[in-house]
Amino acid sequence: MASVNKVILLGNCGRDPEIRYLPSGQAIASLSIATSTRRKDKNTGESVEDTQWHRVTFYDRLAEIVGEYVKKGTPLYVEGRLKYGKYTDQSGVEKYTTDIIVSELQLLGGREGRGEPPSEGSSAPRRAPVAAAPPAASRQAPASGFDDMDDDIPF
User: Fold this and answer.
1) How many domains does the chain contain in total?
2) 143 within a domain of the structure (yes/no)
3) What is the residue range of 38's domain?
4) Does the residue 29 lie in any domain?
5) Are 4 and 20 in contact (CB under 8 A)?
């Protein structure tokens, strides 16, 4: 039976990334991403913002990209999988963790404040600009040769 463990987050980096290297040389970057939702409070009618914080981990080349181009406040799109863990703290209490192990990353927003932007040949993923569709009035049907026929065919 197939199974799926997939997470997609679109949010802002909550703190500067922490980069470390294993003895093997493998890069690991950790940061938190904030996602927010808005709702109206039933009693007061005021808009209430609910922010969730997500622990996110990047490995290898993605970790290096994060270390170079991401800082607190950077908007990010990430895809990955959930990983649950358990540890015992110093006072002997068992604690549980939930991490997102990232497999896809897109840096969103402008290039300001991130140092030199990646070159066109760089492996840093970028979100492509979305071109707006022309207004309906300016759209023209392709010339097929059938529009200019004057035949009165009954079907």
Assistant:
1) 1
2) no
3) 7-122
4) yes
5) no
CATH number of the domain bearing residue 79: 2.40.50.140
Question: How would you classify residue 76: left for phi > 0, otherwise alpha for psi between -120 and 50, otherwise beta?
Answer: beta
User: Mapping DSSP to helix (H, G, I), strand (E, B) and coil, where does residue 15 land?
Assistant: coil
Q: How confident is the model at residue 26 (pLDDT cuts 50, 70, 90)?
A: very high
Torsion of CA 133, 104, 126, 119, to 10 degrees: -160
Whether residue 21 contacts residue 83, with contact meaning beta carbons closer than 8 Å, is answered with no
Q: Check: CB of residue 59 under 8 Å from CB of residue 28.
A: yes
Whether residue 48 contacts residue 103, with contact meaning beta carbons closer than 8 Å, is answered with no
Does residue 134 belong to any structural domain of this protein? no
* Confidence (pTM): 0.65
Q: How far apart are CA 12 and CA 32, in angstroms?
A: 8
Query: Given CA atoms 118, 119, 125, 128 in this order, what sign does their dihedral have?
Result: positive
Residues 6+ apart with CB under 8 A from 93: none
